Amino acid sequence: MAKSYEIAVIGGGPGGYMAALRAARLGKxxxxxxxxxxxxxxxxxxxxxxxxxxxxAEILESMERAKEWGIETPEISVSFGKMKRRKDEVVTRLxxxxxxxxxKGKIDVYEAEGIVEDEHTVKAVSEKGEERIRAEKIIVxxxxxxxxxxxxxxxxxxxxxxDTIFDIESIPASLIxxxxxxxxxxxxxxxAALKTKVTIIEAAERIIPAEDAEAAETLxxxxxxxxxxxxxxxxVKRLTKEGESVIAECADGQGNxxxxxxxxxLISVGRKPNLSAVRTIGLExxxxxxxxxxxxxxxVPHIYAxxxxxxxCQLAHAAYMEGIVAASNAAGLDKxxxxxxxxxxxxxxxxxxxxxxxxEAAAKAGLRVKTAKFDLAGNGKALISGDTGGFVKIVYxxxxxxxxxxxxxxxxxxxxxxxxxxxxxxxxxxxxxxGMIHPHPTxxxxxxxxxxxxxx
Length: 456
What we know:
By secondary structure, the chain is α/β, with parallel strands linked by helices. The chain has 12 helices and 24 strands. The protein has helices spanning 14-25, 40-45, 47-66, 80-104, 182-193, 213-225, 316-330, 359-364, 380-385, 413-425, 430-434, 445-452; strands spanning 3-10, 30-34, 108-111, 113-118, 121-126, 129-140, 144-146, 159-161, 174-178, 197-201, 229-231, 235-242, 245-251, 257-262, 264-267, 271-273, 285-286, 289-290, 303-305, 344-346, 351-356, 369-375, 391-397, 403-410. Helix 1 (14-25) runs parallel beside helix 7 (316-330) and helix 3 packs across helix 5 (182-193). It is globular. The N and C termini lie far apart (74 Å). The model has no long low-confidence stretch (mean pLDDT 96).
């Protein structure tokens, strides 16, 4: 007889394990099936390893800057092997932490591939064989994989994706990054700090095209100062190998040919949903992604979906909340997902963070808005830190002053953006922000200073 659970979760990434923990906390009998590692892409091949390496980049930049401030150090050397070992140690510790949480929640974990056969049946497939599991409700959290563009010669050159770049054996002398989105610019920051000659090739008019245009321009200038070459409005047509080098043959916005040479290639053009678990049950789709409503319900009764597999912002912290919403509804509650206030963080140097509407998005939506901006060149803490190239920009509704969006560029802004999220969640106004006392000297008071611009 098949084992029976009240809720079955397929996928052990942020959305999946959070859904399992929430369901267990609500008193449900829960199982989770994961075919690789607990923690999913974020913990094992994304957020955590990349930010561990970015911390190395930050330290290297600080050590170089220290010479200008009168702190002399011997010549800096890098042990890439130790960098990789530390990254692995951080990942392993957090993965073990997820495992412990699931164990404490009395959640049965199956090391297998989960396949949904119908609205109440999950097939767990592993080297030990197949096992069918009955469940009253099923939550699909199967995540995504790196998308590979149809570039001629891609399979014949040294090529990495965001999944495999952390396994690179040595620091390349030069690296071609195809795609200037979040992954591309973060990896450019890492390898530029390691003295790799980096070239970013981006098809859009600017890097990080989904973010504020001024933020993209500020980051582009910072990357160029680090020696990163940025080519925009260009598409890669073919990759060829010449000796130990790779040549990327491109076409610019006018169709003119362009060739870029490097020792290796990183593909970072987006991600595609992992759908092998649900291909046979006839789910309604939203483009390539599983379609869900605000309760995270799919078109098939008793089946929910969360995380990268449903598209949207494809961020771990959004998946956490989607998992909580799905589990709550699967347990009989009534909870809705509100994705209007999801912070976006890019851990480059300087960092970029945003929440709510950008200035461009507000204009496209036809909203009557104003902006208030404060440059970090006038911020005491930024000047002390030597990080004056950023800014804080507030987008607010013209009539009542309600804050609709915030963009920040500068040191530690990924930590600060939650303050902006709180204001937007509570429908706070720019006047209320201007009336809130901030500590001095801090980077965060730039939010206060931006709000005060409305009185000028």
